[in-house]
């Protein structure tokens, strides 16, 4: 399946993922793989044995079309994200004092609330299959944004509602439970650790074993469209979003370590008026201030604090 300009799923060709042979052709061709697509591919590949134990690919690559394929490195990268999601879900359950069996409903929103095949998400572990029911709500943030654009008074209702919400927050970054689950997830997705070994390590960490048998959660889809009424002109990709920000890099020696360290290629050091500045592209910078650039700087020239908006 591929998404057309109106974000509607359309049938494309059928391909043999091992030989690359087109079994049934179609005029509609994909140009890339969505996150939803990755979940589907992983699920089918795990069910059919093309992935024996993540990230091991029996035939080296999963072929999806011209220049479209999935490698073991891709599985590792996807697994790091899927593993983080699962580790966070499990951490929330444990830190709330619950057991896996206590989970009644699992709610999926965003793209997961519409496009993602919940059965496949359960199969690969990005959605717990030990809950009794999975409810897919569609893209709630887009739906809310749309409601507010159509009727500004809705914003007051939302602000009032937000005022009534009280919650405890669990910081995954500092949670020992999350660290234990996530180290198991990393070993599972990137090093080929089996599920039995996974559970063995959970017992060492004093955490309950995950059920090894597939769950029987039912799926309820409450939204048929992911994005309601896109507009009459379809969807366009906005090329330039975000802003450029700059910070004076006092004492910078132009070693360029910060640029090499940045995983997003978001920082560059520029010179102007005999001064050096760290320039951050907020379209690329993770926005969560990972600050790897700050930490690597040998002379503490940058802080990511005293920033100016450039344009
Ligand atoms: S905070 Fe992280 S993503 Fe942003 S510029 Fe620094 S290293 Fe790159
Ligand atoms: S790491 Fe520090 S000294 Fe090196 S280029 Fe970046 S800001 Fe300058």
Question: Can you put this structure into words, describing what you see?
Answer:
It contains nine helices and 13 strands. It is of the alpha+beta class and 311 residues long. The protein has two domains: 220 residues, no CATH class; 66 residues, 2-Layer Sandwich (Alpha-Beta Plaits). The protein is globular, with a radius of gyration of 23 Å. The two termini are 40 Å apart. The model has no long low-confidence stretch (mean pLDDT 91). One iron/sulfur cluster binds next to helix 8.
Task: Describe the SSE topology.
Blueprint: E1 2-3, E2 9-10, E3 14-15, E4 22-24, H1 35-48, E5 62-65, E6 68-70, H2 72-95, E7 105-108, H3 118-124, E8 133-136, H4 140-150, H5 153-164, H6 176-191, H7 195-204, E9 218-221, E10 244-248, H8 257-261, E11 267-272, E12 275-281, H9 292-296, E13 307-309
Parallel strand pairs: 7-8, 8-9
Antiparallel strand pairs: 1-2, 3-4, 5-6, 10-12, 10-13, 11-12
Bound molecules: iron/sulfur cluster (2 copies).
Summary keywords:
Alpha-Beta Plaits, 311 residues, alpha+beta, globular, 3-stranded parallel sheet, 13 strands, binds iron/sulfur cluster, 16% strand, 4-stranded antiparallel sheet, 2 domains
Short description:
With 311 residues, this protein is of the alpha+beta class.
Uncertain stretches of 5 or more adjacent residues: none
Cα separation of the termini: 40 Å
Reported for the largest beta sheet, the result is:
4 strands, antiparallel
- The helix-strand sequence is EEEEHEEHEHEHHHHEEHEEHE
Reading side by side through the largest sheet, how are the strands ordered?
11-12-10-13
Bound molecules: iron/sulfur cluster
Class computed from helices, strands and strand pairing = alpha+beta
Let me know the number of strands: 13
């Amino acid at each position: 399946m591929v998404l057309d300009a109106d974000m509607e799923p359309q049938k494309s060709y059928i391909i043999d993922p091992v030989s690359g042979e087109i079994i049934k052709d179609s005029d509609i061709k994909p140009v890339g793989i969505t996150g939803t697509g990755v979940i589907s591919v992983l699920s089918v590949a795990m069910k059919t044995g093309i992935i024996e134990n993540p990230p091991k690919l029996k035939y080296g690559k999963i072929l999806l079309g011209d220049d479209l394929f999935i490698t073991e490195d891709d599985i590792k990268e996807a697994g790091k994200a899927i593993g983080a999601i699962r580790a966070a879900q499990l951490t929330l359950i444990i830190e709330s004092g619950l057991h896996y069996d206590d989970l009644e409903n699992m709610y999926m929103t965003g793209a997961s609330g519409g496009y993602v095949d919940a059965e496949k998400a359960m199969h690969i572990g990005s959605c717990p299959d030990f809950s009794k029911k999975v409810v897919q709500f569609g893209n709630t943030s887009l739906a809310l944004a749309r409601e507010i654009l159509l009727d500004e008074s809705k914003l007051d209702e939302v602000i009032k509602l937000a005022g009534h919400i009280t919650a405890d927050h669990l910081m995954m970054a500092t949670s020992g439970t999350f660290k234990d689950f996530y180290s198991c997830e990393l070993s599972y997705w990137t090093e080929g650790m089996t599920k039995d070994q996974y559970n063995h390590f959970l017992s060492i960490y004093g955490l309950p074993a995950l059920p090894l048998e597939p769950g029987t959660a039912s799926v309820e889809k409450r939204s048929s469209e992911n994005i309601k009424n896109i507009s009459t002109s379809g969807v366009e990709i906005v090329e330039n979003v975000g802003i450029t920000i700059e910070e004076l890099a006092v004492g910078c020696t132009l070693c360029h370590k910060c640029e090499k360290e940045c995983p997003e290629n978001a920082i560059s050091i520029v010179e102007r008026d005999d001064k050096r500045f760290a320039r951050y592209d907020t379209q690329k910078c993770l926005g969560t201030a990972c600050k790897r650039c700050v930490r690597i700087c040998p002379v503490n020239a940058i802080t990511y604090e005293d920033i100016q908006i450039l344009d």
